[in-house]
Structures are given as C-alpha cells and as structure tokens.
Design goal:
Layout lengths: L12 H16 L4 H15 L3 H29 L2 H17 L6 H30 L4 H8 L1 H21 L1 H23 L20 H9 L16 H4 L3 H30 L4 H25 L5 H24 L2 H5 L2 H14 L2 H13 L4 H30 L3 H20 L6 H9 L3
Helix pairs in contact: 1-5, 1-6, 1-7, 1-8, 2-3, 2-7, 2-11, 3-5, 3-17, 4-5, 4-8, 5-6, 5-17, 6-12, 6-16, 7-8, 7-12, 11-12, 11-16, 11-17, 11-18, 12-15, 12-16, 13-15, 13-16, 13-18, 17-18
C-alpha cells in the first residue's frame, strides 16, 4: 500500500517571536507610571515625601533609558535582541526586588530608576524593532498583538500589586512583582528571540523564497534601472533618516504624545481617589483602561493593513483628547457621586481603547517611513527625546498639583496638546526612500 505523505506547513516562526515579545511587554509594565502610583500613597505616608519627589524617580529612569537607547539600537540591528533582552530582564527584576528595601529617597531613584531605564530604554525598543524586523505585510496585526503585552501587564499587575499590599504590605509587593517579572519573560527571551527571519533562512511574513534573489537585488541597486515600485520596506541608514523633515516631525509628535500619555497614566489613579473614588475602584479603573487599551491596540494595528496609519493615529488621538477632557470635567463636577463610579469606568474604557492604538501606530509609522535595516539605530536616536518627554509628563502633573492643589492645569494642558498632535499627524509625509532619490537624480525626466 502506498504511504501517504502529509505536507504540513510549519507556522511562521515570527509568531513565536510575537508571543515572546508579548511576555516581555507585560513584564515591562512593572515599572510603568500606574504601578508606582499605587505604591505612592503608602510610601508617602510612611516617609513623608512629596508626590513630586517620588515621581522624580520616573524622570530619572526615563532620562537614563534615553541615554542608553542610542547604544542599544545598533546592538539590536547587528546582533539581535536575545542577550540584551535577557540581561535587561534580570536587571529589571532585581531593581523591583530592591525596592522592598527602600529606606531613603535615593533608594527609589536607584532601584526603580534603573528598572525603568531598562524597561523603556531597552525592552520597549526590543518590542518595536523586533516585530518590525519579522513582518512587513502583516506588521499591523503583529504589532498590535505585541503591544497587547504592556496593556495586559498594566491591567493585571496593578490588581496583583494592590492585593499583596493589602495582605502583606508594600515591601512584599515590590518583591513579589520582581519575582513575577523574572519568571514570566527571562527564559523565553533567552531561548526564542532571533534578530531577523533572514538569519534562519526565512523571509518577513513567512513569504516563500524569491527566485533569483541575487539578481533582483542587483537590479534594484543599479541606478540605471527603474527601481521597484514596492517600497513597503525602504532602506535607510541612521545618517540618512535624521536629515529628513519627516524624522523630526515624527520626533515631535512622539514627544508630545508620550508627554501626555505618561502624565495621564500616572495621575489618573490619584485623581480618582482625590475625587472620592475608593482605592479598589480606582485600581479597577486602571485595569479597565489597560484592558480596553489592549483591545484597541490590536484593532488599530489590524486597521493599518487597510487604511492610512497616520489618519488612524490622528483619529485615535483626536477623539481620545475629547474623551479625556470630558472624563476630567465630569468627575470634577461630582458626577461620580451622582451616578456612581460606573461612569468613570466607561470614560477610562473608551479613552483606553483610543489611546491603546498610539504606541503600535507610532511604531508602525517609524517602520513604514524608514524600513527595517537600521530601525534600532534610528529609534535609538529618537528615544532620548521621547523618553525625556515621557518623564516630564508625570513631573509636570505632580508639580502643578503641589502648586495649585488640583489637576485642572495639567489635565487641560494634556487635552490641548492632544489636539495639536492631531494637526501634526495629519501633516506627516512619507519620505522618498534613498534608492528612489538616487534614481530620480539620475533620471530627471
């Protein structure tokens, strides 16, 4: 009897990469603003520190992360993310565990600051660059799934942290959080992460090999031949990218959005509790915002495969700004006391869904504009700017609160910046890839 041969196609390895990056993102959330905001009141009450002093550790970590990124980006481009990610997660987990030994304010800057430096200066770069390297045609959905990780972490880690704080105290909560980070993502990163599909004989999106690839590459590099019309994966160097207007427009847009996002994420929890919402309800609101953000990030990412990424980003930011402004004013006038905390849940859920698309959409735009070849190096240059902005948001909110005794000034400022960001997003123009610039220069007609 003739034996049957089964032709079973293996799943594309890139989806394993996405799964690991998802885990990395979920543990990265251990040093996000909303986590520190839950520890804020018990630590301030015990030590008598001001809110602005504690929030300064976020700025310190963000600035350090910004300084590290220009060095990390080229490493990701040349050697891949595996070892740098594994070592980074070890340092992040150790920093969180170290927070349980806090006695002086500088301890927070050391342990939390270094952990945050690793999370946003290294791990965030790994998420964006690694997924972009493995996908082009399906980049939107892959990026959406990958950025589910930080949102899922932001949803469930606060609940976990609050439970341990209430049952075992805030010191034990920091230790438990650090151990959880190590258990979830250190080994998967070491075992599975790879730089690009070409390194293991594959192509982006799992596409079949292209015949006569060497001849095709030679043809595309020959300025006497018309370049390919497929510019979905342009090749830019870092030096070429930073000389374009589009690069600096994207830097400005990223800084504005991270300034607002960082400030809002940190101060939503204390704002809710200041308005009479219980601590448990406020933590639930943060989790709802993160879960809806995870769903939003996935859906917005998928939409980029059919629609303009910059238009989608402008819609998400513009509508999100309106929703956030409405959320602030409704709570200020006491509508929660009238209609119940469910109103706050609705607002943060809608806002989370809209703003959940910002990070994946920005990552996709960077990859669409400048390609995969030097994406780590390019984003490494950008990170000092946007991480400084991300650090400034929470500090700005805290200083305004300490000075005015309310969040009116910072929250109104964040809303205005959102609307300005919409105009910048709509004005973005995709830069002409260098290979097409060369062809145009040699063929003026």
């Amino acid at each position: 009897m003739e034996s049957k041969r089964w032709n079973i196609r293996k799943p594309f390895y890139g989806w394993i990469i996405v799964g690991v990056v998802f885990l990395i993102g979920s543990t990265e959330a251990g040093v996000f603003q909303n986590i520190l905001s839950i520890f804020l009141k018990p630590m301030v009450e015990e030590f008598g520190w001001s809110r602005a002093t504690v929030v300064g550790s976020i700025a310190f970590g963000s600035l350090c992360g910004g300084m590290a990124s220009p060095w990390v980006g080229p490493i990701l481009d040349r050697h891949g993310p595996r070892m740098v990610t594994f070592l980074g997660i070890l340092i992040l987990g150790a920093g969180l565990i170290g927070m349980s030994f806090t006695r002086q304010i500088w301890h927070i800057y050391l342990f939390f600051g270094i952990g945050r430096m690793i999370a946003i200066g290294v791990l965030s770069l790994v998420v964006s660059v690694t997924v972009s390297n493995w996908f082009i045609r399906q980049r939107g959905r892959a990026m959406g799934i990958a950025w589910l990780g930080p949102r899922v972490g932001s949803a469930f880690l606060p609940l976990f942290v609050q439970y341990v704080i209430h049952s075992q105290g805030w010191r034990m909560a920091w230790s438990a959080l650090g151990l959880l980070v190590l258990l979830l993502s250190a080994l998967p990163a070491l075992i599975f992460l790879r730089r690009r599909p070409e390194d293991i004989g594959l192509l982006p999106d799992g596409a079949p090999p292209v015949p006569n690839k060497a001849q095709e590459k030679h043809r595309l590099n020959d300025v006497t031949a018309a370049p390919s019309t497929n510019i979905s994966d342009p090749e830019w160097t870092r030096a070429q990218a930073i000389r374009t207007h589009s690069f600096w427009e994207l830097v400005l847009l990223s800084c504005l959005l991270l300034f607002c996002g960082g400030g809002i994420n940190f101060h939503v929890y204390p704002f809710l509790t200041d308005q009479g919402v219980s601590e448990s309800s406020a933590v639930l609101a943060i989790s709802i915002m993160a879960i809806s953000g995870a769903i939003g990030g996935l859906l917005w990412g998928i939409l980029t495969e059919k629609s303009s990424t910059k238009i989608l980003l402008s819609i998400a930011v513009g509508v999100g700004g309106v929703v956030f402004l409405a959320f602030f004013w409704f709570l200020k006038v006491g509508i929660v006391r009238t209609l119940g905390v469910g109103v706050a849940y609705i607002f943060v859920g809608i806002y989370g869904f809209l703003f959940g698309g910002v990070y994946p959409l920005l990552s996709i735009i960077w990859a669409e504009f400048f390609g995969r070849t030097s994406l780590g190096s390019i984003q490494g240059v950008v990170n000092p700017f946007r991480l400084t902005a991300n650090a400034a948001g929470p500090i700005f909110g805290a200083l305004c609160f300490d000075f005015y005794g309310s969040y009116t000034v910072p929250f109104l400022t964040f809303s205005i910046i959102y609307f300005i960001s919409v105009l910048i997003g709509l004005s973005l123009k995709t830069p002409l890839p260098p290979q097409l610039q060369s062809y145009a220069a040699n063929h003026p007609d």
